[in-house]
Specification:
With about 400 residues, the chain is an all-alpha fold. It is built from 15 helices and no strands.
């Protein structure tokens, strides 16, 4: 699974230079605004009840949970569609494609539900194939539509159809088993059964995705086009080492530290040793980006996006800490401190957002605003790591 994940990520990043030469910063700016709405709605669609699937041992319970997640997603999609259609009808802006946001969110959340289900059944070949085909479909279709249309709709259609194709891969062998669990949907029973998952996983998921969504929308509001496009591509490029290295480190360390926890042994030394390695890598990457960001982004994405390299230099402190510290967030799960973790994430999000809004209202430019935002976020990550380290000593 790790290999297919890496291949899928590589497909995404290797095709980004092509997309950046087809679509201009304005198109990516419009797509960034579109995407900023899609990802939080994707979380709210299912309310993250699919996270309950791994906790069930019986297949009937697993398929029933998948069925419930799909039904609540369809209901929420209908609810979300109404205000977006209303906005498109009354808005003087030519943002007619906003009507596609609920559908895009649905097609972003459905594969998540099916992925949990297929993973629980240990069908690694199917999940691996999904990662690769999903990345290929998204990127190649965006390129194809971009060559035909040369407009933001090319990126949107590539995403929507690519997600649908990926979903079909995960549907194989699952649809009829999910459908066998159909019954009358009861909101009361739904909330009663998944209360714990909704109370923690939904707000946690919203907080996670708002880290990028809220900043895109704030940049769009305060600084305007094409800065959201520059920021979006900067974020995607800086996410590359996190997705390729840091996320896999999370899985490996989670497994190893779980074994220590089962034996009631401290695992803080293991964490600090892994942190030193990741932080060393982060320092090297950050140093290169800080010195040569403009040149690197010009080479990768073309001269139109050289300014993304400047923004990368402003954000590099935050991404260094994310790269080195996010792989240890599982400690809060092992030590049953999810509620406290949620409070920490919420506090970080609110203060970071407040910092951005205050600086923007004081008419600081985007570079100073993002640098301050980055430093504040890095301080929060460092504080969280100290908390993880304390928890891992098993002294509480």
């Amino acid at each position: 699974m790790a290999a297919s994940s890496i291949i899928g990520q590589l497909i995404t990043y290797l095709t980004m230079p092509i997309l950046a030469r087809i679509f201009d910063p304005h198109a990516f700016s419009l797509y960034a605004d579109f995407f900023a709405w899609v990802i939080p709605l994707s979380v709210l669609n299912t309310l993250r009840v699919e996270y309950a699937i791994p906790s069930y041992s019986k297949k009937t319970e697993q398929f029933r949970t998948a069925y419930d997640a799909i039904i609540i997603s369809l209901i929420n999609t209908i609810i979300f569609t109404i205000p977006f259609i209303f906005y498109v009808l009354i808005s003087s802006d030519s943002l007619w494609y906003y009507a596609f946001i609920p559908a895009a969110a649905l097609l972003n959340s459905m594969p998540q539900v099916l992925f949990f289900l297929v993973t629980k059944q240990l069908k690694t070949n199917q999940t691996g194939l999904y990662r690769i085909i999903n990345s290929l479909a998204n990127q190649l279709l965006s390129i194809a539509f971009g060559l035909l249309l040369r407009d933001v709709i090319g990126l949107i259609l590539g995403f929507i159809i690519g997600q649908f194709i990926g979903m079909l891969v995960l549907c194989y062998g699952q649809v009829h088993l999910i459908w066998e669990q159909k019954s009358k949907f009861s909101p009361h029973l739904f909330l009663k059964q998944y209360k714990e998952f909704i109370l923690f996983n939904t707000p946690m998921g919203v907080m996670e995705v708002l880290q990028i969504s809220s900043i895109i929308l704030l940049i769009s509001y305060y600084f305007g086009d094409p800065f959201p496009g520059y920021f979006y591509l900067t974020w995607r490029v800086l996410q590359a080492p996190i997705n390729l290295i840091s996320n896999n480190a999370y899985l490996v360390n989670y497994h190893h530290c779980s074994e220590f926890k089962i034996k009631s042994l401290p695992y803080n030394k293991l964490i600090i040793d892994q942190f030193k390695i990741l932080f060393g890598i982060a320092i090297i990457i950050s140093f290169v980006i800080f010195l040569f960001g403009n040149e690197i982004f010009s080479l990768l994405l073309g001269d139109n996006f050289s300014y993304s390299g400047q923004l990368a230099g402003n954000l590099v402190i935050l991404f260094s800490m994310q790269f080195a510290i996010n792989p240890f967030s599982f400690v809060a799960i092992l030590e049953n401190k999810q509620r406290e973790l949620l409070i920490r994430y919420g506090t970080q999000f609110l203060l970071n957002t407040l910092c951005f809004v205050v600086l923007a209202n004081l008419n600081f430019n985007i570079e100073i605003t993002l640098t301050t935002f980055s430093v504040l976020g890095a301080i929060f990550h460092a504080y969280n790591f100290y908390w993880y380290f304390k928890l891992a000593r098993n002294e509480q």
